[in-house]
Design brief:
Layout lengths: L2 E6 L7 H9 L4 E4 L8 E5 L2 E5 L12 E4 L4 E2 L1 H13 L7 E4 L3 E2 L2 H14 L11 H9 L6 H4 L2 H22 L7 H15 L3 E2 L1 H10 L4 E4 L23 H8 L8 E7 L2 E3 L12 H9 L12 E3 L1 E2 H11 L3 E5 L9 E10 L2 E3 L6 H6 L1 E8 L16 H14 L2 E6 L7 E3 L10
Parallel strand pairs: 1-10, 1-11, 2-5, 2-10, 5-7, 6-8, 7-9, 11-15, 14-16, 15-19
Antiparallel strand pairs: 3-4, 12-13, 16-17, 16-18, 19-20
The structure holds inosinic acid (IMP).
Length: 432
């Protein structure tokens, strides 16, 4: 029985939620392995729209376990609000499970995220200001507080006092802010601990046991490959590993146990936040795609930057993830364009290059070399098979396969769940 990782093949917001929804319906377990409530996953179930931030989409499917793995950074207040929201919508949160090794986002992380962005001014990252970066900083500096510490009634006060004293130095002396009260934070977090305690376990054991027992496990990615802290457009990245490698670290499952890696992309590209974007469209065509694709951030409401598919970055994403499959979303958004473009190489200082340079000043000078393909019209419904696609769209899909060396398994032709062509049944038959 396969374990499948779904990752974003672009800059996030590729529509992973729709693919995950399809797979989660067939999965026994859905696992988040990185990021935190910077993610905004919109999932439509039974005509109802749910917006998830930290909770994996498995929570929406009866009988499916939802695991927040050790690699996720958890804002306990935001997580509890999300649980309350789901319960108020009649969703059973009893199958939600939280890793005892996940790190916590503390109030000072959120505060420092905003202060650091303001300090950077023009060179800001454009973060979601949810405290993600500072929480991962503390994790790596070995100054983090984990879920296991949260549940340790005696140890918690001490560790909060120690860390708040350090952060207060920074807040007061560097940023000229008022100090935070360790006692207040302790009281709040003690309350969160009691509410979260029933959800907590050793999730690496749980997920490995599920895979060993032949259950179908879906690893649900957040953000996108080009936002990976190692492989993305550093420093304009998030602080975690949204690539497939992050799945193993963030869940405690070895790479030999992951059977398929599905990269999700849109038929165009969007980016929210700052940073390089070689194929960005700063014109009416970009505006038209933004409006037709409703490209506004789920977490922040920010308008997303729009551009053509960048084959240089797609090939790169396919390589660093070891993609076996591709899901293409939003082909309907481009319907009616006479031609569509895909960048197949860059021109850098008069040279043709086929890999993205690591140096951002060089990347900023890269001019995309486009291949122009014929556009496709309104599909007038959802074709049952890939063979029924208009020839121009089929050529486009083939080009994506050539660039990524991966097989297109899913083609999405509209927002609704039914508006999808499943070329390959990734999980096999339905769970029940
Ligand atoms: P952070 O993850 O809040 O630190 O933000 C770092 C960068 O990642 C910014 O450019 C954000 O806009 C981007 N980012 C973070 N989460 C998402 C997401 O879920 N979708 C798209 N972009 C994201």
């Amino acid at each position: 029985m396969p374990a499948i990782a779904v990752v974003g093949a672009q800059f996030g917001d590729e529509g992973k939620g729709k693919v995950s929804h399809y797979l989660a319906e067939r999965a026994h377990m859905v696992v988040r392995t990185q990021g935190g409530n910077n993610a905004g996953h919109t999932v439509v179930v039974g005509g109802r729209i749910f917006r998830l931030h930290t909770v994996p989409s498995g929570v929406l499917y009866p009988g499916c376990k939802s695991v927040i793995g050790n690699g996720v950074v958890v804002d306990p207040k935001a997580l509890l609000e999300e649980i309350d929201y789901l319960r108020s919508e009649g969703v059973d949160t009893g199958r939600l499970i939280l890793s005892d090794r996940a790190h916590l986002i503390m109030p000072y992380h959120k505060l420092l995220d905003g202060l650091d962005e303001d300090r950077r001014g023009q060179r800001r990252i454009g973060t979601t200001r949810q405290g993600i970066g500072p929480a991962y900083m503390d994790k790596n500096a070995r100054l983090g507080i984990r879920v296991a510490d949260l549940l340790d009634r005696e140890g918690l006060r001490e560790v909060i006092e120690e860390h708040v004293a350090l952060k207060n130095d920074l807040l007061v002396k560097v940023y000229g802010q008022d100090p935070l009260s360790a006692a207040e934070i302790y009281e709040d977090y003690r309350g969160y601990a009691e509410r979260l305690r029933p959800f907590v376990t050793d999730t690496a054991r749980l997920v490995n046991d599920a895979i060993d027992a032949g259950e179908r496990v879906l690893f649900e990615g957040a953000q996108g490959s080009l936002l990976d802290v190692d492989h993305g457009t550093y420093p304009y990245v998030t602080s975690s590993h949204p690539i497939a490698g992050g799945v193993t670290i963030g869940s405690g499952v070895g790479p030999t146990k992951i059977d398929k890696v599905v990269g999700v992309l849109k038929a165009y590209t969007s980016r929210v936040g700052d940073g390089p974007f070689p194929t960005e469209l700063m014109d009416e065509q970009g505006d038209a795609i933004r409006e037709r694709g409703k490209e506004y951030g789920t977490t922040t409401g920010r308008p997303r930057r729009i551009g053509w598919v960048d084959g240089v970055l797609l090939g790169y994403a396919a390589r660093i993830n070891g993609l076996t499959h591709i899901a293409i979303n939003s082909v309907d958004v481009l319907a009616g364009f006479d031609t569509v473009k895909v960048a197949v190489a860059y021109e850098l200082d008069g040279r043709r290059i086929e890999d993205p340079p690591a140096n951002l000043r060089e990347l900023a000078r890269c001019k995309p070399i486009y291949e122009e393909l014929s556009g496709w019209g309104d599909l007038g419904g959802t074709p049952a098979h890939r063979s029924e696609l208009p020839a121009s769209l089929e050529s486009y899909v083939k080009r994506i396969e050539q660039i990524s060396h991966a097989k297109v398994a899913v083609i999405s032709v509209g927002r609704e769940q039914g508006e999808t062509i499943y070329v390959e049944d990734l999980f096999g038959k339905a769970r029940v």
